[in-house]
């Protein structure tokens, strides 16, 4: 039985994987959905990027055997930092429309000024140093294929995101030297970034396999059946 570790991106937490986990479990896979420090329901937002990396490394080291790791969105660059430290425990990494960054660059280095400045101001106004989740942003950028009911359901799961995940430059040289197999699970209806951006981020690290699935950025929640079908292809490729 393959063990799959599922890592969420910004504003998310492990609960966002529940629908995918249920389908994978039915298909005979063992799953564990992680929640980064600061993204749990009652977590303090006073976290560091090092807390993210250490948490992921500790979870991977605790596994009995090798695991397959799936990273969605901002989880991409967290995995860039974490995986080289635990490469012996990872069979494969599957990036799902993930932010994979050049060395010494942060996610905000690739976000338009008006958007990142707005997020910084919102984080200050929140009083916690975390970015609130904007329902309009979810509707028009992330879950564009979702019904109103699904968006309402998703909004109940999302949390304020510590700003540190956006502003920390990645040290990616060790990631570039890794030999772990990589696959892109590419949601083709994602409009959260310019067309082809996530594909370009992935291909910058080599000519690795791509599995396409017709869903938006929130496919793991908005289209779990189609998403998981693609994920299983990526697992077995």
Structure commentary:
39% of the residues lie in helices and 16% in strands. It starts with a strand and ends with a helix. It has eleven helices and eight strands. It has helices at residues 18-26, 49-61, 75-82, 113-126, 135-142, 148-155, 164-167, 173-176, 197-203, 219-222, 224-236; strands spanning 3-7, 30-34, 67-72, 90-96, 130-131, 161-162, 182-187, 210-213. It has 237 residues and is an alpha/beta fold. The mean pLDDT is 97. 41% of the residues are buried. Strands 2-1-3-4-7-8 form a six-stranded parallel β-sheet, with helices on both faces. The protein has a two-stranded antiparallel ribbon with strand order 5-6. Helix 1 packs across helix 11.
How would you sum up this structure in a few lines?
This protein has 237 residues and is of the alpha/beta class.
């Amino acid at each position: 039985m393959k063990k799959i570790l599922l890592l969420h991106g910004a504003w998310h937490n492990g609960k966002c994987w529940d629908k995918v986990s249920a389908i994978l479990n039915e298909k005979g896979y063992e799953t564990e959905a992680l929640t980064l420090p600061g993204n749990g329901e009652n977590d303090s937002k006073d976290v560091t990027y090092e807390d993210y990396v250490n948490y992921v490394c500790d979870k991977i080291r605790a596994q009995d055997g090798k695991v397959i790791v799936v990273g969605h969105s901002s989880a991409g660059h967290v995995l860039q930092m974490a995986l080289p430290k635990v490469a012996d425990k990872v069979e494969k990494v599957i990036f799902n429309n993930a932010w994979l960054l050049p060395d010494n660059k942060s996610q905000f280095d690739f976000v338009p000024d008006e958007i990142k400045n707005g997020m910084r101001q919102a984080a200050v106004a929140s009083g916690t140093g975390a970015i609130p989740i904007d329902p309009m942003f979810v509707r028009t950028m992330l879950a564009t294929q979702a019904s109103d009911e699904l968006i309402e359901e998703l909004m109940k799961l999302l949390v304020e995101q510590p700003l540190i995940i956006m502003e920390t430059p990645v040290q990616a040289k060790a990631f570039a030297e890794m030999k772990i197999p990589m696959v892109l699970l590419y949601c083709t209806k994602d409009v959260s970034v310019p067309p082809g951006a996530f594909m370009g981020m992935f291909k910058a690290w080599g000519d690795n396999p791509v599995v396409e699935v017709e869903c938006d950025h929130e496919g793991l929640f908005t289209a779990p059946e189609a998403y998981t079908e693609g994920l299983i292809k990526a697992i077995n490729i």
